[in-house]
Amino acid sequence: MKAGRTNKRAGKKGITSEKAYEFGFRVSLVARHWRQLNDQVIRPLNLTDAVWRPLLHVARLGKQVNQKQLAQSLGIEGSSLARLIDQLEEQGLIRRIEAPQDRRAKLISLTDRGNAVVTAVQTRIGESHSELLSEITEQDLENCMQILDRIEAKLLERL
Fold first, then answer.
1. CA-CA distance, 98 to 86, in Å (whole number)?
2. Is 96 within 8 Å of 89 (Cβ atoms)?
3. Nearest Cα residue to 16 out of 31, 26, 5, 24
4. Which regions of the chain are under pLDDT 70?
5. Are 108 and 82 in contact (CB under 8 A)?
6. What end-to-end distance do the CA atoms of the chain give, in Å?
7. Spatial separation of the C-alpha atoms in residues 103 and 96, rounded to whole Å
8. How are strands ordered across the β-sheet holding 102-110?
9. For the chain, which residues make up each domain, given as ranges?
10. 13-130 carries CATH number 1.10.10.10
């Protein structure tokens, strides 16, 4: 496709394929930098990404979450998650409990220690993100989140 030509798949508003590509590239780059900053901010807590990310996802998904929901939220396979859950349980950060509707199924919840880790991580990340976004207006941030929500919905339709 020649430069500047409209890609009908890229959208009805005349977004060029080059702009769509650049947008995707920039979102990926920003996401990588965002994650690097999170790792840097959390490093003093001596936590790895493999520990704090699943704990935040459990906290965000609710008090009790099944493994399938957690695997989808983290974007990993169930077998990888099972090993990770074993490690987190050994560290006393999560617990498995029987699902009331199916005793064979297990639900995952945070222990008191896991909740304390989540609070520490959320505090450090929250402070860092607030500082990072301090020059962005609430309205600009809301607009950005709405656009990201629309893009995410389209992505999920295709996955």
1. 15
2. yes
3. 5
4. 1-13
5. no
6. 25
7. 12
8. 65-66, 102-110, 94-99
9. 13-130
10. yes
Which residues have C-beta within 8 Å of that of residue 9, sequence separation ≥ 6? 17
Q: Please name the amino acid found at residue 1.
A: M
| Token pair of 5 as six digits | 């030509």
Could you count the other beta carbons within 10 Å of the beta carbon of residue 70?
Answer: 21
Separation between Cα atoms, residue 102 and residue 139, nearest integer Å: 45
Give the span between the Cα atoms of 135 and 159, in whole angstroms. 35
pLDDT of residue 120: 96
Q: Which residues pair with 116 in a beta bridge?
A: none
pTM above 0.90, yes or no: no
Name the token pair of 158.
């295709």
Residues 6+ apart with CB under 8 A from 125: 38, 41, 42
pLDDT number for residue 49: 86
Q: Are strands 65-66 and 94-99 parallel, antiparallel or unpaired?
A: unpaired
